Amino acid sequence: MGRIIDQVRGMSLAEKRELAETLREAIAEELAAGAGEPDRCPRCGCPAFVRKGRDAAGRQRWL
Fold first, then answer.
1. Domain limits of the chain?
2. What is this structure's pTM?
3. Where are any strands of DSSP class E within the chain?
4. Fewest Cβ atoms closer than 10 Å to its Cβ: which of 4, 26, 51, 63?
5. How far, in Å, CA of 60 to CA of 17, rounded?
């Protein structure tokens, strides 16, 4: 895990933002694919959330 953190520290801000969004999407897709309803919003972590349709790529959206 330490190696990953070191790699993230070496990234530009734009790369970190892209990584964060990609991770959020991957987690949301995994949860929507059958892991059950999440306890918190997969995108922002808020405990008050609802499903908000799908985006153009077919990924679950959250509000």
1. 2-62
2. 0.50
3. 51-54, 60-62
4. 4
5. 19
